[in-house]
């Protein structure tokens, strides 16, 4: 909505032209006439590309040397999460070490799912190795919910079990992203020597 004024008073009957970058969406009507309150309105329909759309209102009048223009930026957020764009993690680490898991997602138009307006979350849960000391995420829990950041990354750091073996991580995604097979991060017995034991036989 635009309000046109002159000498502090609202001006009715003034034609206002609305424009927007065609790649960012459409606006209708392209022209509107101000009412008794000096206001003219149009409806903006966003496109499929996330970002900032610049909407410009222009007034032409015979008594003006130059057109009056006013622009405003309209943020366009991504749609609902639709698929996983990237999944990174080390499938093998030393037992007792840490492994970073990083996930990025996109909507059905290919836009990155970031925290521009609402930060979607991803939940990670790790199972336990029988007889082990227990694998946990940073913070000491076996389940953690992480929000995406400005770059679209949902990142979790896993402290794998000190007992060698598979650490199985289940991931729950937002939106319409289908469940995926769990991640398997294997802890290997390849750590640096930490202690030495010696015995003599026979004594």
Give a written overview of the molecule:
The protein contains no helices and 19 strands. With 203 residues, the chain is mostly beta strands. The chain is rod-shaped and about 115 Å long. Strand 2 (5-6) and strand 3 (9-10) form a beta hairpin. The chain has strands at 2-3, 5-6, 9-10, 15-20, 25-28, 31-33, 39-40, 43-46, 51-59, 68-76, 83-88, 92-94, 98-106, 121-126, 136-137, 143-147, 154-159, 165-172, 183-188. It has a 5-stranded mixed beta sheet with strand order 12-19-18-14-16, with no helix packed on it.
Percent range for β-strand residues: over 45%
The side-by-side strand order for the widest beta sheet comes to 12-19-18-14-16
Largest sheet: 5 strands, mixed
One letter per element, helices H and strands E, the order comes to EEEEEEEEEEEEEEEEEEE
Mean pLDDT value: 92
Write the layout of secondary structure elements.
Blueprint: E1 2-3, E2 5-6, E3 9-10, E4 15-20, E5 25-28, E6 31-33, E7 39-40, E8 43-46, E9 51-59, E10 68-76, E11 83-88, E12 92-94, E13 98-106, E14 121-126, E15 136-137, E16 143-147, E17 154-159, E18 165-172, E19 183-188
Parallel strand pairs: 12-19
Antiparallel strand pairs: 1-7, 2-3, 4-6, 4-9, 5-8, 9-10, 11-13, 13-17, 14-16, 14-18, 15-17, 18-19
Keywords:
46% strand; mainly beta; 203 residues; 4-stranded antiparallel β-sheet
Short description:
0% of the residues lie in helices and 46% in strands. With 203 residues, the protein is mostly beta strands.
């Amino acid at each position: 909505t635009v309000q046109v004024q002159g000498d502090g008073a609202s001006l009715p009957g003034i034609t206002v032209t609305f424009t927007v970058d065609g790649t960012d969406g459409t606006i209708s009507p392209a022209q509107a006439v101000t009412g008794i309150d000096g206001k003219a309105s149009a409806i903006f329909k966003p496109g499929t590309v996330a970002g900032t759309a610049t909407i410009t209102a222009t007034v032409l009048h015979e008594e003006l040397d130059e057109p009056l223009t006013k622009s405003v930026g309209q943020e366009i957020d991504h749609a609902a999460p639709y698929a996983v764009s990237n999944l990174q993690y080390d499938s093998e680490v030393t037992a007792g070490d840490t492994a970073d898991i990083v996930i990025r997602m996109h909507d059905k138009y290919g836009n990155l799912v970031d925290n521009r307006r609402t930060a979607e979350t991803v939940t990670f849960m790790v199972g336990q190795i029988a007889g082990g000391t227990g694998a946990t995420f940073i913070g000491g829990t076996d389940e953690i919910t992480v929000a995406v950041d400005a770059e679209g990354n949902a990142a979790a750091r896993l402290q794998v079990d000190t007992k060698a073996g598979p650490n199985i991580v289940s991931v729950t995604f937002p939106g319409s992203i289908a469940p995926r097979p769990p991640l398997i991060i294997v802890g290997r017995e390849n750590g640096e020597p930490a202690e030495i034991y010696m015995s003599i036989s026979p004594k």
